[in-house]
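Chapter summary example.
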Amino acid sequence: MTNMPNSLRIDGSIFLLAAALSLTSASGETVSAHGVVPILAGRAPEYFAVGECLHAETFADPGSWLVQVEPVESATTPRIRFEDGVFDLYMPERGCTAWLKQRFAGPVAIIYEVRCPVETLEDPGIQARDLNNFWHATDPLAEDGLFDPKRYTGRFTTYHKLHGYYASTGGGGRVGNRTIRFRRYPRSNPEGEPLPHIALTEQDGRQDLLIVPGRWHHVQLVIAGGFVQYIFDGKLVYEMAPGDEVTVEHPDGSVTRERYTLERFPAYDSGYFGFRMVRSHHQYRHLRIYRLRPVRAPAS
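The structure predicted for these 300 residues follows.
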């Protein structure tokens, strides 16, 4: 990998460079290399190479998205905008999940940029609380069940039953949320009963992984045959491959260290991507989804 053409090594990570894919923001700023194509970080080069771009989102078509807004009694008003290549979600005092209505299968990397605007941080019910994601997510009972408004309402607990991966970065906002999490869902079964699930929390409170209001942050999510990564601003936050020891959270609140195997925790091979937020104002841009070409399969 050290002699790979069109690459740049920064802080031990390899960034792929693609002049033809360079992007410019609405303000004229050039998007950095890791905002255009995926990073091969950690053990990623052992498992895959970056393939073609499967989806380049312009945020020009609201019909491509389903936004589930939590119903709350409040004098505040939520707002959803698609403007100048930016997906703007303003959700005071309520939760929200926005699903891209296109299902992706197989190994993929998802990259995008997001910021919490400083202009609205003092608005009632708004704070730079956290940035959250679901990927390769599905409903266990119906193929497009995630879009059922009776079952998935925008309230966070209604998503505990889905199958997929989840990652979050805290903001250290007024509620003091400094959690930096990775989870493998479901957290509960279709009847709502809690289930043991992988929950990685070792990075909680890391200052360099928290939201900086006003800054465009770079997020990358990876799934490749049981190999999973969460990358934030070019830093590898979590990665998980079969054979690793992981933390499993149990219904009684206890945690154990267990070996991650595909027999115990099968890999999710397809599903939907969604942005998740609560009591926040987020702006998203430059969403890209890339095929990952397996180099070798992770052990089971």
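To summarize the output: DSSP finds one helix and 19 strands in the chain.
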